[in-house]
Specification:
This protein is α+β, with helices and mostly antiparallel strands. The protein has 17 helices and 46 strands. 23% of the residues lie in helices and 30% in strands. It starts with a strand and ends in a 10-residue tail after the last strand. The structure holds alpha-L-rhamnopyranose (RAM). Alpha-L-rhamnopyranose binds next to helix 4. InterPro entries: 6-hairpin_glycosidase_sf, 6hp_glycosidase-like_sf, Alpha_rhamnosid, Bac_rhamnosid6H, Bac_rhamnosid_C, Bac_rhamnosid_N, Ig-like_fold, Rhamnosid_concanavalin.
């Protein structure tokens, strides 16, 4: 038996890890059962830890227990397994390398360009350079780098690493991530290190209103090249005032949202000197997966009715443009990037843009923008984001690829005075390079396309942090990430990614315990601070770690974020009770009723169901808020019990129970709820607010609500992930399947029929085309249609559920315990189920006809026409 898929702290061979006591995970192959393991960890051949033969079937998150590790330690580890016959297998090797763990590991100094930034002025990309001679043959070399801004590095003309948009997105006021690169093979005797520094999240346009200078006026860079010579001596070349600087290179403008201006005629002169900058926070490792360039798309060329040239890349993505163009010096090309063509077939950016003041703006402007009072704004307005690439050619061939901008687009409007060959243009997707873990296919091609659309919306929005969309806002909206978590976790291994984002979420928590609505911090307090406590959004603080724990078996995540969770719990508890005195008086469960603060409510139901919202009034969201008070407090009670905090657990349980009573008192009349508004029925069912009798009645009412709308979808962000599960639980998977496969709007497949290649923000398709939240329905495809669920500790529950017009469906999930697959096919009235379970796991298989089998590793086939034997366990 042999270990495969070895990981350290959820990562494959991480370089620059920031965790001093890392945990090891693997999957098993070659035999049925792991009866023992042995881990050996070595540094430079010296054994630091030998676990010895441990009798255990455990294969995830086993902590290192050797002598303490230090910054820069490169640890080779190997795991040997024993199988069911106690036969010892071959050791399987892996490694990790620690980064710089302590503040005093940094001897380099923060540097910046030699100019005084002024308000309302944007600056070209800074270029820094140093030249040095290696004292002798280099055995090992590492570059550690970060920025307040975005950076990239070139060593002797070659790009260092492939991390895009480094150092990634955080609240730069308190947290800045560095990257570690192995540059051992890149050095010669004479060497040149060049670094570029752009505005990025730090100083460039951020969020819906393109606020600039969010974190500061002065961008800065910190880099440290560490050389270990063959003779054992070492040398550090760190940024400092010895670095040459200029900002006269080709990138004369670079903004994450607005695009780049690239003048191929320019090369940096490095005429000036870097200045020492005020230091940023002590850099830390992100322990996350790097964003990288991924799939590429070649365009087809369209000529619009007005005669414009538009490139269609066929897939809506978030990413870069790469092109190569032959021209004369000074010739220009302008590419504007957008998601859709308008009703006339013309290029447009209207669906992704908002107006913002051209000059820096403050609180009053913020207020006017947010309350829809744009007409009261003074001064010049401009649209944001611009998503525009301007290229000025040099003589001959100009090669270009975006460096410090990313756009959400499928189409490019091409203008300029030079002919470009579409064959030499590419759209390049950029996203966090997460391990792809989920596949789903079925006999319904439209459904399969919707699954791919959802996967593409995930790709388009998982760039170091989970964002709502890659165009208009591009912010780490908490609610979006929360509702999509389970779907995301089937598609890709998101353990490290969400651990990183949880740190952002904790960083963004206000002193009151209320989180901000977006993480990392994105300014605009009137919007994101005010709305941060919204139920369904704020609850990400509890629900994301909870789900990480359940899926990846990672209890440390609960521990790490428990203080933040309890702060949020305290915030909620201190905000219970009705707003109006009269309501409070008549409600015996007033102290467990929740409505205070700002709540988004269900959010983006089909238009007919949306509550009236105006600048002056918003509906009370007592129903949503009290429901989530129950739901989140129930989760908290379970977490507190797990962490052995009985007093907390009791208090959380009291609020969970009280909120349930309050909810029933306020909203469940005569044991049911009577409405066609699906969210009002789905929510109490899904969040566990109803007693069995009421649940049955409300479930029946939900079926009617769906049928009354011809099986179209009626929920918004919060309830969409739950609607099919609740129909299924009500015993009506037939209705769930009809809704799933419905091609009439509003529905998932209506989007596909309309030509969507990603998931729309709203059911009408009028806003962003790339919001993953409504794609959260895919969770049901994995956990119900194919029926794959993790039960923890090397166990699965597999309960496939054929239905609808589907004649077959098949899913694979590379789970933390290994690859599990579940497929079924119906032929002449007989359904065959094919299930494969990975080594060292077991599964409880529930078949639709009621049969229950516990199976071990390997392939298993069941048919609906085989004689049924009594259930065996
Ligand atoms: C929208 C965002 C996001 C949503 C919030 C409430 O503007 O795009 O998807 O969570 O508002």
């Amino acid at each position: 038996m042999r270990a495969i898929r070895l990981k350290t702290e959820h990562l494959h061979e991480p370089l620059g890890l920031g965790i001093r006591t890392p945990r090891f995970s693997w999957n098993c192959a070659g035999s049925a059962v792991q009866t023992a393991y042995r881990i050996v960890a070595r540094r430079d051949g010296e054994t630091l830890w030998d676990s010895g033969k441990v009798r255990s079937s455990r294969m995830i998150l086993i902590p290192y227990e050797g002598s303490p590790l230090r910054s820069r330690d490169r640890i080779d580890w190997a795991v040997t397994l024993w199988d069911e016959d106690d036969v010892e297998g071959e050791p399987a090797p892996s490694w990790f390398e620690l980064g710089l763990l302590d503040a005093d590991d940094w001897t380099a100094r923060w540097i910046t360009g030699d100019y005084r930034p002024r308000r309302n002025t944007r600056y070209p990309v800074d270029c820094f350079r140093t030249r040095f001679r290696a004292r002798g043959p280099v055995a090992r070399a590492r570059l550690y780098a970060t920025a307040l801004g975005l950076y990239d590095a070139h060593l002797n003309g070659t790009r260092v690493g492939d991390f895009e948009l480094a150092p990634g997105s955080t609240d730069y006021r308190t947290r800045v991530q560095y990257q570690a690169y192995d540059v051992s093979g890149m050095l010669g005797e004479e060497n040149t290190l060049e670094l570029r520094l752009a505005d990025g999240w730090y100083r460039g346009a951020v969020g819906a209103y393109g606020v600039t200078r969010l974190f500061g006026d002065t961008t800065a860079l910190l880099a440290q090249l560490e050389l270990t010579y063959a003779d054992g001596t070492s040398e550090i070349i760190g940024t400092g005032d010895g670095f040459a600087w200029s900002n006269d290179g080709p990138l004369q403008f670079a903004d994450l949202k607005d695009g780049e201006h690239y003048d191929a005629r320019l090369t940096p002169t490095y005429r000036g000197r870097a200045r020492i900058a005020r230091p940023g926070p002590v850099p830390t490792a992100s322990d996350n997966v790097a964003p990288r360039t991924q799939e590429e798309f070649a365009p087809t060329v369209l000529t619009t009715p007005s005669g414009a040239t538009v490139l269609d890349f066929g897939q809506n993505i978030a990413g870069f443009i790469r092109l190569s163009v032959a021209g004369r010096a000074g010739q220009r090309i302008r590419l504007r990037l957008g998601e859709v063509l308008d009703e006339h077939g013309e290029f447009t950016q209207k669906n992704i843009q908002l107006d913002k003041p051209a000059r820096h703006f403050g609180r009053i402007t913020e207020f006017l923008l947010m309350t829809g009072q744009q007409r009261l704004l003074r001064g010049e307005l401009e649209s944001t984001p611009k998503q525009e690439i301007l290229i000025t050619c040099a003589d001959g061939v100009t090669d270009y690829q975006c460096s410090f901008t990313v756009a959400g687009f499928r189409y490019a409007l091409v203008q300029g005075d030079v002919d470009i060959d579409p064959a030499s243009i590419r759209a390049v997707a950029v996203y966090s390079d997460l391990e792809q873990t989920g596949t789903f296919t079925s006999s319904n091609a439209m459904l399969d396309r919707f699954v791919e659309n959802t996967r593409w919306s995930m790709k388009g929005n998982f760039l170091d942090v989970p964002t709502d969309c890659p165009t208009r806002e591009r912010l780490g909206w908490t609610g979006d990430a929360q509702v999509f978590f389970n779907t995301a976790a089937y598609f890709m291994d998101v353990a490290a990614f969400f651990r990183k984002w949880m740190r952002d979420l904790e960083d963004s928590q206000l002193r009151s315990g209320k989180p901000r609505a977006v993480a990392p911090y994105s300014g605009v307090p009137m919007m994101y601070d005010t709305s941060g406590g919204s139920v369904g959004w704020a609850d990400a603080l509890v629900l994301v770690p909870y789900r990480l724990w359940k899926r990846y078996g990672d209890e440390a995540i609960l521990r790490e974020f428990y203080p933040a969770m309890t702060r949020y719990a305290r915030y909620m508890i201190s905000h219970t009770g009705h707003k109006r005195r009269k309501d409070a008086r008549t409600n015996p469960f007033n102290e467990y009723t929740y409505e205070k603060g700002f709540h988004y409510g269900e959010w983006l139901e089909p238009k007919e169901f949306r509550d009236e919202v105006s600048a002056r009034s918003r509906p009370l969201c007592t129903e949503e808020a009290t429901a989530y008070l129950h739901y989140t407090m129930s989760h908290l009670a379970e977490i507190a019990t797990q962490l052995d905090e009985p007093d907390d657990a009791a208090r959380f349980a009291e609020y969970a129970d009280g909120a349930k009573k309050a909810y029933n008192h306020l909203f469940v009349h005569h044991g049911t709820i009577d409405t066609d508004r699906q969210a009002k029925l789905v929510r109490p069912l899904a969040l566990g607010l109803l007693d069995p009798g009421a649940a049955e009645r409300v479930g029946g009412r939900l079926v009617r609500a769906v049928e009354n709308r011809d099986d179209t979808i009626g929920t918004g962000f919060l309830s969409t992930p739950f609607v099919l599960p609740m129909l299924t639980e009500a015993g009506r998977s037939d209705v769930a399947y009809r809704m799933l496969e419905n091609e009439s709007a509003p529905s998932w497949l209506a989007q596909v029929r309309a030509g969507a290649t990603t998931v729309w923000e709203d059911w009408e398709g009028e806003a962003s085309q790339n919001h993953y939240a409504p794609g959260a329905v895919c969770e049901w495809l994995f956990d119900t249609v194919a029926g794959i669920r993790i039960a923890g500790d090397n166990r699965f529950v597999i309960s496939p559920l054929p239905g609808g017009t589907l004649t077959h469906a098949s899913a694979g999930y590379d789970s933390p315990y290994g690859l599990v697959t579940s497929a079924w096919r119906t032929d002449n009235g007989v359904t065959t189920f094919d299930i494969e379970i990975p080594a060292n796991t077991t599964a409880e298989v529930h078949l639709p006809d009621g049969r229950l089998r516990t199976v071990g590793p390997g392939r298993h086939r069941f048919r609906t026409d085989e004689p049924t034997r009594p259930a065996q366990r």
